Amino acid sequence: MKSAVETLNPTRVKLTVEVPSADLKPKMDAAYKQIGAQVNVPGFRKGKVPARIIDQRFGRGAVVQEAVNDALPEYYSQAVQEHELQPLSQPEVNLTELPMAEGQDLKFEAEIDVVPSFELPDFSGIEVEVDPVTVSEEDVQERLDELRARFGTLVGVDRPAQDGDFTSIDLTATIEGEEIDTVTGVSYEIGSGNMLEGLDDALIGASAGEEVEFTSALASGDRVGQESEVTVTLHSVKERELPEVDNEFAQLASEFDTVEELQADLQAKAEQGVRFEQGVQARDRVLDAMLEMTDIPLPDNLVEAEVTSHLEKEERLEDDEHRTEVTESTRRAMKTQFLLDALVIRDEVNVDQGELIEYIMMTAQQYNMNPNEFAQRIDQDGQIPAMVTEVGRRKALAGVLEQAKVVDTDGEVVDLNALNALDEVDEEGLGEVDEEGLGEDDSDDDVLQDEDRSDTDVSDGGAQEVADPAQELDEDAATEADVETDDEGEADVDSDAGTESEELEPASAEAGQDR
Questions:
Q1: Residue 462 pLDDT more than 60?
Q2: Are 128 and 406 in contact (CB under 8 A)?
Q3: DSSP symbol at 106
Q4: In whole angstroms, what is the distance from residue 115 CA to residue 389 CA?
Q5: 489 pLDDT band (50/70/90 cuts)?
Q6: Is 449 in contact with 195 (CB distance < 8 Å)?
Q7: 195 phi/psi in degrees, rounded to 5
Q8: Nearest Cα residue to 120 out of 320, 319, 496, 399
Q9: Which of 145, 209, 238, 394 would give a disulfide with 154, using CB separation of 3.0 to 4.6 Å?
Q10: How far apart are CA 400 and CA 336, in angstroms?
């Protein structure tokens, strides 16, 4: 086999492949055998039909089609490996010459989008500026109030509902008199905004036992987005009473004996949180500087396909302003992947088993899943290689961050080693694991409640938040513009990559037919 590659633009190439008839002969022989085993020819047993009889009865074109369909993926993959290409899409194949007669060669062309080649600059001199660490009394008080809320109690009130109250309600949605969905005994905190739009306004001012109506777009299901008439029955109204801040509360809510010790701990945690945010800010600004320093061409057709797919899911194809935002974030995400993947190769970044396990455990926590169950799921879904890639990207970025000079706006040098930010924070825009199928699925029929809601227990025992087990990772195109190849760096000729030629279809017996 002979092959050549022509660069059409920085992200697209054309492979020209020529397979001599001698190399193709085993495929032709196998095709004759395959066809002979499937047809009935008088005077011959199945599998014993001579090649010349098959040519006479069924035409050589049928044999060529069988042989080429079997050979094409193999020779395409060989050419990709020979020229060390990293395909991003399915090939668009054009058969330029078929072996319709003995001694003729097979020739074809394949155009594909590939990972672009670009120069990596020296990142060792990067300097970035971040916000200083400042913790206000309000920050500490906010943490204290959150802690009090966790140990608060809900008590019934004999008054109209108001913002912040906890309610028990029934909801029924109808469209043109047809009942779409009904839920009963739902716990809802007014002002949380995690159910239907307009529910808060409808409940405020209503009393237990009353029934109110309002119009709202359905949140999910087959008729998502359609306007419906919603009827709400308010069963109970409760408010949360917060415990007094005293030594008894400190002992109940923490390991400390006094309020002073508790407040000192909250102060330290607030400062730790600000430092953590400072580390994330440093990481993002270092990455911004790296992207600014590196000229990376992007495959515009793949960007457009990613953006369109994102907008279709949101049903916002006609929103030009949002399209501009999604396009910008998609391009940044794609550039980030190319940049960090190149950095992994240049710096010879390796991922050990301990680092992978640590990342799996961290990601499982984001899904509120048991780490062992999560690991089994991603293994079954074939996502382990994607996770290894993600950890490698993190390490590559961490290596640059270690060399960067980071100062705050007060001129103080920031010690990022004390923050461990890169080990704990989800790296936005560095490539995501496919989240489909992870966690429990929400029912398509549950149209009255938002998918990301968290229900609140309104029993008298306390206001305890019940976490939603189906919490999903962010699906923003800014973090999901994956442009991966398979483990061999090749395009899978049987997958559904978004190009004009999605798979290598049966070959035409006509040489030169555009595929």
A1: no
A2: yes
A3: E
A4: 15
A5: very low
A6: yes
A7: -130, -145
A8: 399
A9: 238
A10: 14
Does the pTM surpass 0.85? The reply is: no
Compute the average pLDDT of residues 184-192: 93
Residue pair 233/223 in contact (Cβ under 8 Å)? The answer is: no
**CA 92 to CA 97: how far, in whole Å?**
16
Amino acid (1-letter code) at residue 250: A
Q: Which pLDDT band holds residue 494 (cuts at 50, 70, 90)?
A: very low
pLDDT tens track for 263-295: 999 999 999 999 999 999 999 999 999 999 999
* Residue 210 CA from chain centroid, whole number: 43
- Residue type for 376, please? Q
Tokens of 104: 């003729």
Q: Which two tokens stand for residue 469?
A: 């087990």
Closest CA to 68 of 117, 114, 111, 19: 19
Separation between Cα atoms, residue 323 and residue 310, nearest integer Å? 9
| pLDDT above 90 for 304 | yes
Quote the tokens at residue 236.
């109970």
CA atoms within 13 A on the CB side of 428: 14
Query: Where is pLDDT greater, at 431 or 146?
Result: 146
Count CB neighbours of 175 within 10 A: 13
